[in-house]
Amino acid sequence: MFEWTRLATFMLAAGLLIVVPGPAVLYVVARSMDQGKVAGIVSVLGIALGAVVHSLAAAVGITAVLAASALAFSTVKYLGAAYLIYLGITTLLKKPDPQEKIVVEPKPLWQIFRQGFVVNLLNPKTALFFLAFLPQFADPARGSVPLQTFTLGLIFVAIALFSDSIYALLAGQLGGWLKQSQTFQQRQRYFSGLVYIALGVGTAVSGHKTK
Prior knowledge:
Blueprint: H1 4-19, H2 23-35, H3 37-61, H4 63-68, H5 70-93, H6 109-121, H7 124-133, H8 145-180, H9 182-205
Helix pairs in contact: 1-8, 2-3, 2-8, 3-6, 3-7, 3-8, 5-7, 5-9
């Protein structure tokens, strides 16, 4: 279904985006610190299920558009590129608040899972990100675009599950530093912002795909 170079590029880009902690990881870290590693893992699973739903929505949502014409595909492509660049710029411009802390209340595990799922499911930024990011690696010439998009989403979720679970397991020792270190927040902001911008520029200058 996928050309191996395209798939490798996707996995590399996804890994770079996932490995740098964002709000979801900081939430997992806070949950792990307050209720232990099991609670952190359960949070990761809930967030991952929400991401699966976003992957399915992205696949279904772009089906008609990508199948319509090369112009429609280009429109989605450039809108996606513009959004990724926008994410990069806003990430670079955002200054971390050294006083900001994530506080979570102890909850039963089933509520933790539900909370992680709902929070990620109702996050419009996650939905827009999946819609902008996943289609860039689908190739209409190699089969069903919705199936490719959903498969890429599952791969993204699998990588995120592995990475986020490591953060959950290490949160007891490193969580305080990850949540409070201003130096770390600044470095991860620059890294994330530049990755977003690079992906957006790369998407914008890539060749047109035709059905």
